[in-house]
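Z., the sequence and structure:
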Amino acid sequence: MASAIGNNRQIRYSAPISVSNKKIELLTEHFVTTPGNLFILSAPSGAGKSSLISALLKQDSDRAMQVSVSHTTRSARPGESDGEHYHFVSVTEFKNLIEQKAFYEWAEVFENYYGTSEAAIDAQLAQGIDVFLDIDWQGAQQVRMKKPEVTTIFISPPSKQELENRLCKRGQDSDEVIKQRMAQAQAECSHFQEFDYIIINDDFEQALDDLTTVVKNQRLKRRQQVKNHEFLFKDLLAND
């Protein structure tokens, strides 16, 4: 019987063959790199989305995962570097990419453009990397049109009052800005029904466990497992 040895995303199988009518086990290596899964995480500001993604990447070290690096026309802030936090491009370059249909999704926010490169995401997925897009509901709609199999997750605060408390505790914004953020958060939450999964971030550890469960669930779907274990199923169904 064939055996499977997992090494990150690469699965090695030993395949039985027949020689002179005698079946023997010959170790034949088949390296199968299955495509990664694409995830979208959306949430209103203050729901804890960034903290959850960061914690997930730290705890799941046996799997290749990363957050997508977006293109933007805004200037780099202190401590930000090109290619790590964003791909910083000019407005002209960005508009050329729009004309070339190079983005899964893009938007203009406060006079700056932001976009997710389709080629970059597809290349990462082809390498077996799970990719997380940190985008809003409008971006999620655009991506879903191009890639229907994307897994969408909405991170919700436990209550309106708790969300306001979290925004106030930051100590970074004026009362007027917090009011604007709350209105924006309410608009974001109105689209919760468009997502595949909803995680309520009341207790952080529980929310992280829920997010981990969603990610693992996607890896166990039939499409993923059949590709992962192609040679196993061929061996199981082979006629001796």
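The chain has two domains: 4-32+228-236, 34-68+118-224. The two ends are 11 Å apart (CA to CA).

Let me know what you think.
H.
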